[in-house]
Amino acid sequence: MNMRHVFSPRLALAFTRQLAENMLPRGEKPRDTSGRYLLATCVVLLISLVITPHSRGGEQGVTANPKEAIRSNITSVPRVPFFPLPREVELCGESVPLQYRDVRERLEREFIISVYNHAQVYLWLKRKTRYFPHIEKRLDEEGLPDDLKYLAVAESDLMDYAYSPKGAAGHWQFIRSTGRRYGLSINRRKDERLNFFKATNAAFNYLKELHDEFGSWALAMAAYNCGEIRMRKEIAEQGVRDYYRLKLPRETERYIFRIIAIKLILSNPEKYGYHLPAGEQYAEIKSEHVWIRSKVPVHMRIIAEACNTCFREIKQLNPDYRGYYIPAGLHEISVPPGCGRTFQEVLARYTEEIKREAMRAYPKRARKRRKRKHSGYRVYVVKKGDTLSTIAKTFGVPISKIKKWNNLSKNVIVPGQSIRIYE
Known about the structure:
The longest helix is centred in the first third of the chain and has 25 residues, at 118-142. A hairpin with a 2-residue loop joins strand 1 (90-91) and strand 2 (94-95). The N and C termini lie far apart (92 Å). With 423 residues, the protein is mainly α. The model is unreliable at 1-7 and 53-62 (pLDDT under 50). The protein has 4 domains: 3-76, no CATH class; 90-272, Lysozyme (Orthogonal Bundle); 288-367, no CATH class; 377-422, LysM domain (Membrane-bound Lytic Murein Transglycosylase D, Chain A, Roll), CATH 3.10.350. It has helices at residues 3-6, 9-22, 34-51, 66-76, 101-115, 118-142, 149-156, 176-181, 196-214, 217-226, 228-238, 250-267, 300-306, 311-317, 343-348, 351-361, 364-367, 388-395, 399-405, and strands at 90-91, 94-95, 288-294, 298-299, 325-326, 329-335, 377-381, 418-422. Helix 9 (196-214) packs across helix 10 (217-226) and helix 10 crosses helix 12.
């Protein structure tokens, strides 16, 4: 028992008063008690000094030496772990020259910033299970290095609807001009940079061309960031074709090292203390692709009713379509699994509602425009096994028109080729 708590000031006062009264002879009334109170107080103080334990280090939580107390508190604070870089690092099969002080310090900066950003790393770990399977599959089909998947993480953190201050958009952060150059449709009704699957194909085509021109994946990915025109200029001015020795824009100088840091963390998260329990990862978003042809815009709410779902799900499956409507013409859209087989049949029942909704949203006077030969076109990227005959059948147009629209003299097409289909 701690006697300091027993001899509190209130208890000591009561004990003193009782002790003074007990000093009176039996039967005598109290008169002047000051002397007796003084004597009783001295007795109580003496008792408290005798029974109060002396301060000794480690006893009753009291430390005799204040410096020892401070030292004890400091050593009780948990240390922040330090994670050194591996001795050897490679990206896309190319060795990173860590023997150079500058290279090592630049990589350490990006690695330390990333590895201690716990919230962001856990979001990467959750999102990668949604997007990496498709990226890895397409990389394997195209014969490209698997490490290119980490470029998407560096670009957008694998976020939906990712936009940059410079106007880049989507998981692969295409600017408008580059996106259009690689077959992505971008206008006031549609932005295919936000379509993960189409943007992934466009990104791989772009990276292949950059690698063919610059000869290394580090330079190709750096050019993906700053643009091939800037990269050509810097190589010509500096006379160097090595990313690690080039002086580039500050963001581009950090870019490849950020990708390497992401690779180190996501390829072995347990090594750095990250553990995501089973079932906490985000699942892949499953969908089916269907074609829809309409002379008027189709409200996504009607498509949702035809698929027995809600507007939000249809919008999430088709982030590349702006606003509430699928534009007039021929379009490929995504619908929930199980809806594709009967979609055309069910949607046909909503023909009148589609027209009424289009009239409400687009009155006749607003829809009157000068007639054009073609209202617009979409770009179809040729896949393995495609022929002009199968493409013509898919879109419901004659082969002769496809050849005319694309200046084709023969019926020969190759995988990866972009084919225009006018509406």
